[in-house]
Amino acid sequence: MCCRYTLLKEHLQPLLQKLGVLLATGTVPTSRYNIPPGGPIFAVRNGAQPSPIQSNLLGYSGSTSSPPRELVSLHWGFVPSWAHDAAHPVVNARAETLAEKPTFRDALRSRRCLIPASGFYEWKVIGRTRQPWLFRLHDERPFALAGLWETWHAPDGSTRESCAVVTSAPNALMEPIHHRMPVMLADPAAWNDWLDPRIDRLDTLNRHLAPFPAEAMTATAVSPRVNNIRHEGPDCVAPAGSTNDPHVDPQFSLGL
């Protein structure tokens, strides 16, 4: 499963520009190096269709353009719309069963989102030790995790917008560490397909749910400080051994 990732502020702005989402001046958030489930995270999704007046002002034509995209804050922990309560949110959604599971079936058709990321963590269990590994693109550029979102209406009348990260089988880089990996989308064609509300054919979506090419990624053992969700800062992504960490040789990497 994917249960922790990182997003650097210098990565968010250019990624949003490529996605066609503009941030207001001064709204770029700080970097986060240890983002866990159970709290708010950034996601890009399709926004509401503009009114005719807004369309004219924005130069938007519903007949020729996709819906506008927006950056939103979603709770990482998916709660189905039909759930009686929010006691058992789901962090990850298995790509292989999205179309079958009642929890995700409707969201797959019409509520897909992209979760900006700079890298993600996974842990290898060695005896009683859990060694964290940081996975990034080979050129360290930002990418997006495939996500699904939903709106849940609580009995008290409040609402919660939540999301889950879609996961797939591992690639050759991930397999020695864990049996699952998040679905990574790293190019505009994949982003456009995932967000396009007109696409609901499984054969189109499934081609983006395969394990990401291992040769385009690196994996590096990092400091066990990231094991604690209360720890934040650049030391979370420091190679193991670079901060007096005796557990792993800092030169040991799974990069292909």
Please give a quick description of this structure.
The protein has 256 residues and is an alpha+beta fold. 14% of the residues lie in helices and 30% in strands.
List keywords for this structure.
256 residues, alpha+beta, 8-stranded mixed β-sheet, 5-stranded antiparallel β-sheet, 14% helix, globular
Description:
This protein has helices at 9-19, 52-58, 105-110, 188-195, 202-206, and strands at residues 5-7, 32-35, 40-46, 69-76, 92-94, 112-117, 119-126, 129-137, 143-153, 159-168, 181-182, 184-185, 217-221. With 256 residues, it is α+β, with helices and mostly antiparallel strands. The strands form two sheets. Strands 3, 4, 5, 6, 9, 10, 11 and 12 form an eight-stranded mixed β-sheet that branches. Strands 2-1-7-8-13 form a five-stranded antiparallel β-sheet. The radius of gyration is 19 Å and the shape is globular. The protein starts with a strand and ends in a 35-residue tail after the last strand. The model is unreliable at 51-64 and 245-256 (pLDDT under 50).
* CATH topology-level fold name: hypothetical protein yedk fold
Number of strands: 13
Label the structural class. alpha+beta
CATH superfamily: SOS response associated peptidase-like
Roughly how much helix do the residues carry, as a percent range?
10-25%
CA radius of gyration: 19 Å
Query: How many helical elements?
Result: 5
CATH class, please?
Answer: Alpha Beta
**Largest sheet data:** 8 strands, mixed
**Shape estimate:** globular
Examine the secondary-structure arrangement and name the CATH architecture.
Alpha-Beta Complex
Instruction: Work out the count of structural domains.
Output: 1
| Mean pLDDT level | 87
Strand content: 25-35%
Low-pLDDT stretches: 51-64, 245-256
Task: Report the end-to-end length measured between terminal Cα atoms.
Answer: 22 Å
The ordered string of helix (H) and strand (E) elements is: EHEEHEEHEEEEEEEHHE
